[in-house]
Amino acid sequence: MLPSLIQPCSSGTLLLLLMSNLFLWEKVSSVPINASEAVLSDLKDLFDNATVLSGEMAKLGVSMRKEFFMNSFSSDKFNKIILDLHKSTEKITQAFNSCHTVPINVPETVEDVRKTSFEDFLKMVLHTLLAWKEPLKHLVTELSALPECPYRILSKAKAIEAKNKDLLEYIIRIISIVNPAIKENEDYPTWSDLDSLKAADKETQFFALYMFSFCLRLDLETIDFLVNFLKCLLLYDDVCYSEF
């Protein structure tokens, strides 16, 4: 995952490892409900909409980060950050570990994956979406307050914020069917970097934007994969693995 911290748009290596490992499972827990055809049909419709949203969000996350690297508004500052991070592996590690969603433990090994239930994967998606709800609102506010911020960046931030809310609604509806005991107000990681994002010092502010766009892009890719994988398990169970 570390290489992706210093590149504008490549997928994290741990995420790629997760994706390849997931489809090599021999067995995984399926939907933890005895669902009627009507319920399964409702879930399919919800997942159909959820996968469209998660895919759009993942593309927007990559596109916004690319824009930060290419637009004169931020390109010099972002490339300077890359050069600084290159100087120390420790700096890279510390920067990555500063992502506020790190405590959401997405399984990275086959053994961990086998121990993860359908419900737990749903919780990961729920908690990640909740963890980004307030930060995205603040991102839009702070970018809007910067006169020099280009529309191409601001519009993508606004779109991601709106789609995050929409996807959260779909996931909550899915959870209400699968397991109503899972509550929206469960603990999830909180973001604490608002002061840096609002900083008058441009170096501090743009480093916050750099890390925000990195962590967001990675999480949106993870969410997209998990939502699609959950849909596959719901509809096809073991067929999901034989197709890869």
From TrEMBL:
InterPro entries, alphabetized: 4_helix_cytokine-like_core, Somatotropin/Prolactin, Somatotropin_CS
CDD domains reported in the protein's UniProt record: prolactin_like
Coiled-coil stretches noted in the UniProt entry, renumbered to this chain: none
Pfam families for the chain: Hormone_1
One GO term of the biological process aspect: negative regulation of angiogenesis
PANTHER family (alphabetical): PROLACTIN-7D1, SOMATOTROPIN,PROLACTIN
Protein name from the UniProt record: Prolactin-7D1 isoform X1
Organism: Mus caroli
Gene that encodes the chain: LOC110307551
